[in-house]
């Protein structure tokens, strides 16, 4: 197997990290063994969730329709037990207008695209079983002895330009002789 980052050929296929650049090779080995498909994630065909916009429209419609159930219950409770019928119109208006506002919010502000569902492929081990195994060769490879060969120090650009002093311009003005009018 070759490292996809630096191209170094690895000594064995069970190596976890590249010996040259330290790139993690566990995922590469899994992808190669499964024929180029990343196991563990696969989009399910045929099953789609409702978009947030559709959910919001349904919630608003249910709230508006629940007015038909809630208002008579509030009317019975307020007339027979509380002896104050003022709650009936407040409840009716609140439920109906709340449903309308929920529908408008869904139409104006929520996303119309449903989130993608990702499931597990049946032939892949679940995550809990993968991590039960003891790690093989958990340490990083030693650093290269001459890793900083191509490095050079950055030039200090502040040394290239020295701002002129304030007195130079004043001195130049004084050095100029004014024409004499005789």
What do you see in this structure?
With 182 residues, the chain is mainly alpha-helical. Among the domains are: 40 residues, no CATH class; 58 residues. Helices cover 42% and strands 2% of the residues. It contains five helices and two strands, in the order αβααβαα. α2 packs antiparallel against α3. The chain is flat.
What is the first-to-last residue Cα distance?
96 Å
Determine the structural class based on helices, strands and strand pairing: mainly alpha
Average pLDDT works out at 75
Helix content percent band: 40-55%
Summarize the main sheet.
Answer: 2 strands, antiparallel
Biggest sheet: strand arrangement: 1-2
Q: Report the principal-axis shape.
A: flat
- E-strand count: 2
Q: Report low-confidence residues grouped into runs of 5 or more.
A: 120-130
Task: State the helix count.
Answer: 5
Give the SSE order as H and E letters: HEHHEHH
What is the strand content? under 5%
C-alpha-based Rg, rounded? 37 Å
Please supply descriptive tags for the structure shown above.
42% helix, single chain, 182 residues, mainly alpha, 2 strands, two-stranded antiparallel sheet, 5 helices
Topology of this structure?
Elements: H1 26-33, E1 42-43, H2 52-82, H3 87-109, E2 118-119, H4 127-130, H5 166-175
Helix pairs in contact: 2-3
How is this structure best summarized?
42% of the residues lie in helices and 2% in strands. The protein is built from 5 helices and 2 strands.
